[in-house]
Amino acid sequence: MINGELIVDNFAGGGGASTGIEIATGVSPDIAINHDPEAIRMHKANHPYAEHYCEDVWQVDPVAACKGHSVGLAWFSPDCKHFSKAKGGKPKDKNIRGLAWVACRWAGLVRPRVIMLENVEEFKTWGPLNRGHHPIKAKQGATFQKFVQQLTDLGYNVEFRELVAADYGAPTMRKRFFMIARCDGKPIVWPEPTHGPADSAEVKQGLLKPYVGAYTQLDFSLPCPSIFDTSEEIKEKYGIRAVRPLAKKTMDRIGRGVKKFILDNPDPFVIGNSEQMPILIQYHSETTKDEVRGQGIKGPIMTLDGSNRYGLVAAFISKFYKSGTGQDMREPLHTITAGDGHFGEVRAFLTKYYGSGTGQSIEDPLDTITAQDRFGLVTIYGTEYQIVDIGLRMLEPKELYGCQGFPRDYIIDHDYTGKTYPRSEQVRRCGNAVCPPLPAALVKANLPEMCKMQRMPNMTIKEENAGQLKFA
User: Fold this and answer.
1) Which residues contact residue 14 at a Cβ distance below 8 angstroms, ignoring those fewer than 6 apart?
2) Which neighbouring-strand residues pair with 159?
3) Residue 262's CB: how many other CB atoms inside 10 A?
4) Element (H or E) spanning 378, and its range?
5) How far is Cα 276 from Cα 145, in angstroms, rounded to an integer?
6) Is residue 327 within 8 Å of residue 353, measured between CB atoms?
7) What residue spans define the domains of the chain?
8) Which residues of 191-206 are buried (b: 16+ CB within 10 A; e: fewer)?
9) How many whole angstroms from its chain centre is CA 305?
10) Do the bridges between strand 310-319 and strand 377-380 make them parallel or antiparallel, or are there none, so unpaired?
């Protein structure tokens, strides 16, 4: 509680909004509500002093929960799947789409001074469904307008915008809809961006900081197994599991990414002196034949979802020496073995240089990279390098949370009791989470009187001091 006012996080989930609020105010929300027991357990690990309600938001009585205290901020992040275009043409659930109405219930019963709501961009299209549970196009946005009108009738000034997380320092280009409603007579304030594209006039003039690159959150010390190794070879070398052989579409995506972001890039990203050129690929279906579902890592990562659809591709390189075949026999990361067959395949595809101009004549493992003269040669500041291997690994949950803008000390692998979460559970919570830098910016701009303390890093907290957990 700050200045006698409560902070409430409805739909608390894994804690993105709560963490953003904590970054701004220095304290966790007083009340956190979510129907998912596992989400609540993760939330409690990071926000142990909140009073947790593990139940449907409609089952929580705002008056009883607030115990007579006034509410300074009520945050709402209702389930977005039944608005998102990512759901495609699948039937929508009227009840899930209607969860946002709970904000009006809180407005009517305990009158929060400021209400903030986050959702996907399509939230503005909220309207009635037909008998097939699909939106009625002619009435698109009708329910949204009624929602705004009801808040207005309750005495709230309402504004909404779409904001990009990268503009506020998060290493992701995730764009989301935000609504602010307040009834205290003060103006609604939209925070000015603090970051922008590196080549923008604002950044060049020093008015904005450059976007935070995805590379800042990636751990390049982790093994990145060769795409040409077998699962058994990877297990033997690194002691980890990896799916091999890769699907043809995956190989195609790797090929397109290497060509676009490394071979055809006048300034490919190189990690220090480690002889790696990393890029990211997406495991999404392309919409056009030549589309590249990937990106360099200098800029923010594209939008993350509830499944890990990003892979880190590392093109391992070494200096190119113009001797006989033009190849460097050093092994940068010991991913190329000297055994019969394997090394020859990788070398023929990646490292042989034919000065005669006849090019290579082997079958192309990556369909989009054609056999050509001097394939795999990259010039960086006047020095020629050649690709000697290509590795691929999935991004780790910690890296994904970092790209969403979570603090490095955020607990994602276990709950407050010590129970561990499987990788899939960690990833799912990350993709569904609010990017903390956005609520932090919104709260600082609109509730500066609440932002007087610094957030303390997460520490191991004994269970008896971990706050109250309520289950329905």
Assistant:
1) 39, 42, 43, 412, 429, 430, 432, 433
2) 180
3) 22
4) strand 377-380
5) 52
6) yes
7) 5-207+424-471, 220-395
8) bebebbbeeeeebeee
9) 7
10) unpaired
Q: Is 17 helix (H, G, I), strand (E, B) or coil?
A: helix
Q: Which amino acid, one-letter code, is at 11?
A: F
Using one digit for the tens of pLDDT, what is the confidence trace for 196-223?
999 999 999 999 999 999 999 989 899 9
pLDDT in tens, 92-103: 566 667 889 999
DSSP string, 167-216: GGT-SB--EEEEEEEE-SSPPP-PPPP-EE-TTSHHHHTTSSEEPPPGGG
- Average pLDDT of the chain is 80
The CATH number of 5-207+424-471, from 3.90.1180.10, 3.40.50.300, 3.30.300.180, 3.40.50.150, is: 3.40.50.150
For residues 44 and 50, the answer to whether their CB atoms sit within 8 Å is yes
Question: Taking a C-beta distance cutoff of 8 angstroms, is the pair 373, 361 a contact?
Answer: no
- The tokens describing 415, both together, are 């709950």
Q: Are 442 and 160 in contact (CB under 8 A)?
A: no
Residue 52 DSSP symbol:
E
DSSP string, 408-432: TT---SB-TTSPBPPHHHHHHHHHT
Amino acid of residue 450: M
DSSP string, 325-377: T------TTS-S--STTHHHHHHHHHT---TTS----S--SSTTS---TTTTE
Q: How far apart are the first and last CA of the chain?
A: 24
